[in-house]
What does this fold into?
Amino acid sequence: MVAYTHLGYPLVVRLAAARARRAAEAAAGPGEPVPPPLPTVTVVVPAYNEQRFIGEKIADTFAQDYPAGLLDVLVVDDGSEDGTAEVVREWEAREPRVRLVQQSARGGKSSALNRGVREARGEVVVFTDANGSLLPGSLRAVVAPFADERTAVVSGTKKPIGDGAHGGGESAYWRLESALKAAESVFGVVVGADGGIFAVRRAAYEPIPPNVYADDYWIPLAALERGYRVAHEPAACAVEALSLTKNDDFERRARISAGIWHGSLAKLGLADPRRGWVAVAFVSHRCLRTGVVPVLLPVLLAASGRAGQASPALRALWWAQVACWGAAAGGAVTNRRALALPYQFALTNVAALRGGLRQLSGRQTGLWKRTSRGRWT
It folds into this structure.
């Protein structure tokens, strides 16, 4: 099960996607298709105590090569206690394409996104975090898949900035995740978006229910549930500095995992085999990876250790696991980049266990805890 989740499924879906691409190219014939006109876009930035970043974020968004007449920025201030609103008001005073919406009390990120869509003017709403920068061309890239009327959600990807095992592991994770989503995108079954940048068709948006705290997981699942396609666009990329401490990063991942547990349990109907690739991606990419494999890893370690007493092959398997967990511990202590992969593997799976326990025990809340980060520059 562990091998299928991390090796088998990615290989199968990428081979199937390559075959489907070749078939589509053959059916399309020669010649480049005429690109459709660009849609109007509202960039929604949910913000809680983002005084340090919000001004740069607005400037960064307008630096995109998107036509000025088709773009506006909406900042949803979710009860900030610093000067976030004052910075946005200064922008409002000199730039008519900037608007501020304030929520008097904190409602959580999902509440802020719902409010943003209600107030949005664009045909496409792009969600992006305040503490990250968009690479040039990201807005044009993220709206391109909406040329297909069946597409309701498009995810971008993340480029983390950081050093050592922490930074190397996070970078490797997102490269692998983006490649897997690109393959799933061929079939329109991307089961999850990246909060740094993803977009929704405003007419197809379904408000996020209360107490949902993984908005970038819930929104794609809700779209798939209603029969829409969910795509991935690697050229739409958000650059984001890593959390300043490993503990902050672990807590962030545990919170994300709790949200994945919550969304997966609520949307188990997507596992119906009659849904085809939707069911395959939902079960393999999310349910097994976050809900099953982390539980199996300690079982595998203990069982192979016991069975290894009578089998040299299983003894070797046990020692390989011990070496991997030891390297992960070494990466956590020394932060050496050479230990990035085992460190990231251990971090992701242990955080998934913690997040699952939080979700099942009812201790996870929908209010996000702001994570301290360095500047993206």
Notes: The CA atoms of residues 37 and 147 lie 9 Å apart.
